Amino acid sequence: MRSLRLAVCQINPIVGDIEGNLEKILFYIDKAVAEKAEIIIFPELAITGYNPEDLLFYPTFIKKAEEALYEIVKKVKDFIVIAGLPVKKDDLYNSAAIVADQNLIDIYHKIYLPNYSVFDEMRYFKPGSRTPVYEYDGVFFSVNICEDIFHPSLPGLIQAAAGAELIINISASPFYAGKYQRKMRMLTTRAYDMGVYVCYLNMVGGQDETVFDGRSLIISPSGEILVRGKAFEEDFIVAEIDMEEVTRTRLREPKIRWEGDFEGGEVIKVPLKRKAKNKLIPSSEKPSSDHEMTEEEEIFKALTTGLRDYVNKNGFKRVCLGLSGGIDSSFVALIAVEALGRDRVIGVFMPSRYTSKESREDVYELVKNLGIELIEISIDELFEEYLKFLSDTFKDLPQDVTEENIQSRIRGNILMAVSNKFGWLVITTGNKSELSVGYATLYGDMAGGYAVIKDVYKTQVYKVARWASRGRIPERVFTKPPSAELKPGQTDQDTLPPYEVLDKILYLHIEKCMGEQEIVEYGLERSTVQKVLKMVKKAEFKRRQAPLGIKVSSVSLGKDWRFPITNRFGG
């Protein structure tokens, strides 16, 4: 029986921490060797972390990655290691190193360089052009990188038609809600259409605004998922696959027999002999599996992963946030506790003359339920001083949004002062609906270092918070009308359409690139659509100054969204 034992190392590297990433890779190699793995696999750009962005312009960065690779080469003996790194030859490539017997057997260069959404790989890399197949003592496998397998022909089909029985795809594929299900369908289709095993290894962890969800897969030639890695967690999977299944499947269903003459294709021999096996060797650890997640669970896991890694990888000990008694700040506090633990989260309650009794009660109940520390600082005296000192300048003009924003900016100043004094990271609580239309105060409630729910619409906030709360968010927070409480009797709907309507307009405009007429054709009132689109356009200057936040949708208000501030296009 021809079987092959794989170790899939779903790790969470740190961008730029080449020494730390190398240490982790060597640790997992030792672990895989103890499991008698024959091929040990690491994600795309595992040595440097993904995405290094303009670090790639620095020759010393590329050189350190190369030095780390040769430390791996020295470690690898009678097994194969595949790991991603940037490689400089005639140009710079996003590459996978294939290492065996203390030798660098080959370097595969990524062919399809994504240049959309959060990706900007054409800025840094040259595309590869080779599609080699590797022979390991009678077993034929190939390697490609992330985007390469998203394309139905090159390189996967060519590699399979040239004899590859196993396609190993190393990835750093960022999460957004719904993407995994589509990706899973695509990968199972690739395996079935080509009659090969597909081993898809995805990175895990948070990097600035992106989150990698892991969920690596091993898929049989018939398109069956054999192994599924954990979601949003590091994982180590050892699995043995029956290579004769490829032969049996292809003889019965020869789908790639007519894909051309590939006799002259490049086949690189790996100079290792496989150990004789009469039967499959059981793993000491069962292959991982992960349940199907709801959208609410996916989003919550992504938010907690993104916040945890941003805080920990950047060396913050604690976070603080303003608590108002509303759904957004309550939800962000819950995310922070789940991500970091209650001892690392500090709530700051800053009531004013307009803060309701109910809001105060809800803040204190939330704090009790979460078990976090609370600081209370009234802003009333400071607000009164502002009004007094500005009275001559403002003369007898009536109060308006100016006075509302002063309150928000006082709160922003207090949060930043606390942050400076104690070294805590301020996490902001604004959602995607508010940021889209500018319903937020620049240098006020937008002040902070990380915008946790920046990419979550208000209607989604309610759904995900309800799923995650388990009684910790007070029930009244879900049912009372949302309000900034900056003037008597204020509610969000004084300024905005109902969130169900607003979010539908925003979704069609942001994610689906629809203009006024197209959105109206979905049954929405023209005057409302016009008002919302005008607000979106007018708020672009605010979004440019907002802190980065976690991407959970197909089009986030970060790298996905690049609009000119000076812009007269009406849409």
What's the alpha carbon Rg, rounded to whole Å? 27 Å
Structural class: alpha/beta
The parts where pLDDT drops under 50 for at least 5 residues are none
Outline: elongated
For the report, how would you describe the main beta sheet? 7 strands, mixed
Query: What is the strand content?
Result: 15-25%
| Share of helix, binned | 25-40%
Number of individual domains: 2
Order of strands, widest sheet? 13-12-9-8-7-6-15
CATH architecture of the largest domain: 4-Layer Sandwich
CATH superfamily of the largest domain: Carbon-nitrogen hydrolase
The overall pLDDT, averaged over residues, is 94
Number of helices: 17
Question: What is the CA–CA distance across the termini?
Answer: 63 Å
Please write the CATH class name of the largest domain: Alpha Beta
Compute the number of strand runs.
20
CATH topology of the largest domain: Nitrilase/N-carbamoyl-D-aminoacid amidohydrolase
